[in-house]
Specification:
This protein is mainly alpha-helical. The chain is built from 35 helices and no strands. The termini are far apart.
């Protein structure tokens, strides 16, 4: 019975974590994007289905292959089953991180980590999505736990020594897990540097152990080797995936903003064929050509525009601290609008985790020096890597395990230090929880501390105690009554937080300074993305547009049209919406309406090659071949890799050539035939023209 009661808090937190994830899963399952994934999700799923069918790519991997391999193994479960598997993997991540926290900070740290991880917005959000973070964080957490445990024998106390003695395999499991993380997303490969340092610290006497270092490297290279050999490196110039150079150019070009993933000249909907074609036209050929070409372009831009590049890098550095979720794939605020659990998680989310994680690291948590230094090295390397490329929620997710652990250890230590009996403890706990919900801005938490820090070190006088009792209950009453005047709760908030942190702070003033610095940086960020009405309309419009496209793929024409029209109402100038409305109208046989939509799209975006191609198709259908040829040529001038336009151009030229040949103008018809040979069209019109004119 005692054992059951002992594990009840952990069980409750596991159920809480599961509840948050199931809430988001059920809300997302009502979206067409759940059943018809798009962008990166769609590419991962398409690749997984190819692998499940026994197919593979003949050229070097454009994306890291481990995650699609895993999806391929689970493909028989269907989309719903695969998404549930991702949810289970998210809980496995918390289990791994919880075990790590227990070794670093005791059972209390494990409970705190489960609590923080249960409501950590990124972990919840990515769980049912077909995106890499769900798998990546499990592997990184496992590698960290194993590697830190392997050196615990030297660096910790008796408990740590027992953990290390019982896990002599930590180095090789950690190496394999880190290697697998490298073929899930190559951007974690720099973690091998702090990992080597950590392995070196595990040697007796503090000197580097060559045997352990070699063992770790061999285990690390084991998962990488098949992919590297498969890509034909170094001849291909591609180690794991050739998208690295493309991403580098996305993050470092004249139009880069540190948030979006648009490609100059191709827009937000760029495809791999666009990158390969541009590299080929620049004379860069062979496997992985696009990666080398775009890396070269980014480096040229950085060296020729150093001041502009420096300003962009500064912006990206500040965006690391941006409190709002960023994602170039989905409009996150619009996506989660139906999920109360995830909405709450995002309200707490990144600011709270950064607040606790950085403060804990600066103040010396976790206690073992090697573990803390390992985390600091990891955070530094990953921050530099993100600034070098570009920043969004997906990419900064790698920080989560390395902030959760110190935060959990710090909270566990504070809990041990500040235990208080009876009702007063409940008042303080409720005050803190309600304050977070009422205010939402962590900077407000530090302002009362800055004032009360001026009091004497002995803060047990009757004035602070009166504020504690009266203000705490006032805060609870204000929260329960739903008062719109949060200032009523401020005295209770100040007193409760001060009482909770005063003893550690007056012994360690660096803690207050660290927290104040982190919060001020987050709230006074010059690049903070304002949640204005205009921006929120854009977010909702983009989500409606993506859902309309998903309904279109699912052949639900009425629902697709409804979603696309909603997107136009929210943002009339949103690109590609009228293009897709035109496709719907054309499929329904409403050709005049379709033409109006395509023309409307070109008025908004004259560079829309797809709209030009579709408009040319309508002209061709109505017998206006010359107008059609003009539109197809314009489309190919904008996007030479658009194969539909290349085929359609040949078809239109064949129609013109047949008319000219029938009229006796064989010279003009032969010119058309020569042009057709430069396209991909070899249909009946081409064959008839060839028969009429001869070879």
């Amino acid at each position: 019975m005692k054992s059951i009661h002992r594990h009840l808090p952990l069980l409750a937190l596991v159920l809480l974590a599961l509840a948050f994830r199931l809430d988001w899963y059920l809300v997302h399952s009502a979206s067409p994007l759940f059943h018809s994934p798009a962008i990166d999700e769609g590419q991962h799923w398409a690749w997984a289905q190819q692998l499940a069918a026994g197919e593979d790519m003949a050229r070097p991997y454009f994306r890291a292959p481990l995650y699609p391999w895993m999806l391929g193994l689970l493909a028989d479960l269907g989309l719903s089953g695969v998404r549930l598997a991702g949810l289970a993997l998210s809980l496995l991540t918390l289990f791994v991180l919880g075990q790590w926290a227990r070794e670093e900070g005791g059972r209390g740290a494990r409970l705190w980590l489960w609590l923080l991880g249960a409501v950590e917005a990124g972990l919840v959000y990515f769980a049912p999505l077909l995106l890499i973070p769900t798998l990546l964080l499990t592997l990184v957490g496992l590698a960290s736990w194993m590697l830190c445990g392997a050196m615990a024998k030297m660096d910790g106390g008796a408990a740590a020594g027992r953990a290390a003695a019982g896990r002599p395999y930590g180095i090789w499991i950690g190496g394999i897990a880190l290697g697998m993380a490298g073929i899930a997303r190559p951007t974690v490969l720099p973690l091998v540097l702090p990992a080597l340092w950590l392995v070196g610290r595990s040697a007796a006497g503090g000197g580097f152990s060559w045997k352990r270092g070699v063992l770790f490297l061999l285990c690390f290279l084991l998962p990488l080797a098949p992919v590297v050999l498969r890509n034909g490196w170094p001849a291909s110039g591609v180690l794991i995936a050739s998208q690295g150079g493309v991403n580098f150019w996305i993050g470092n070009n004249p139009l880069a903003d540190g948030i979006s993933a648009s490609l100059p000249g191709a827009g937000a909907a760029w495809e791999r064929e666009d990158t390969a074609r541009e590299a080929y036209e620049a004379g860069v050929e062979g496997a992985g050509a696009e990666s080398r070409w775009y890396t070269q372009r980014a480096l040229e831009w950085i060296t020729t525009e150093p001041l502009t590049a420096a300003a962009l890098w500064l912006r990206k550095a500040f965006l690391l601290f941006e409190s709002q979720p960023l994602n170039n794939n989905t409009a996150i605020p619009a996506t989660v609008r139906g999920s109360p659990g995830l909405g709450l998680a995002f309200a707490l989310g990144w600011p709270l985790l950064l607040f606790l994680g950085l403060g804990a690291l600066i103040e010396g948590y976790p206690r073992r020096d090697a573990s803390r230094r390992w985390i600091l090295w990891v955070l530094l390397l990953q921050a530099l890597l993100l600034v070098a490329f570009f920043v969004n929620t997906r990419f900064r997710m790698i920080f989560v395990p390395f902030l959760l652990l110190p935060a959990a250890c710090w909270l566990a230590a504070a809990g041990d230090e500040l235990q208080r009996p009876g009702r007063l403890t409940a008042v303080y706990a409720l005050s803190l929880a309600l304050a977070t919900l009422l205010f939402g801005q962590p900077l407000l938490l530090v302002l009362p501390l800055l004032g009360l820090r001026l009091l004497k070190k002995d803060q047990r006088g009757w004035v602070p105690e009166a504020i504690l009792h009266g203000g705490g209950w006032l805060l609870i009453a204000a929260g329960l009554l739903g008062t719109p005047a949060p200032l009523l709760a401020l005295p209770g908030l100040a007193a409760a937080l001060f009482h909770w942190l005063s003893r550690p702070i007056h012994r360690h003033p660096r803690r207050l300074a660290a927290l104040a610095m982190a919060l001020v940086l987050m709230e006074a960020n010059p690049y903070t993305i304002a949640r204005s009405e205009e921006r929120m309309n854009h977010e909702f419009a983009r989500q409606a547009f993506m859902e309309g496209n998903a309904w279109l793929r699912l052949e639900e024409a009425e629902k697709a049209e409804s979603s696309l029209l909603a997107a136009i109402r929210l943002e009339p100038e949103l690109r590609e919406v009228r293009l897709n409305l035109g496709i719907l109208a054309q499929q329904a046989g409403r050709l005049q309406e379709a033409m109006a939509h395509y023309i409307g799209e070109l008025e908004i975006d004259p560079s829309s090659a797809k709209a030009l191609n579709n408009l040319g198709g309508l002209y061709l259908r109505s017998g206006q071949e010359e107008a059609a040829v003009t539109r197809f040529r314009q489309a190919l001038a904008l996007r030479p890799g658009l194969q539909d336009a290349r085929w359609n151009l040949g078809l239109a030229l064949a129609s013109l050539g047949l008319r000219e040949a029938e009229a006796g103008d064989t010279t003009a018809a032969r010119d058309r035939l020569t042009e057709i040979r430069q396209t991909t069209y070899r249909g009946q019109g081409y064959q008839r023209l060839l028969q009429m004119l001869g070879p």
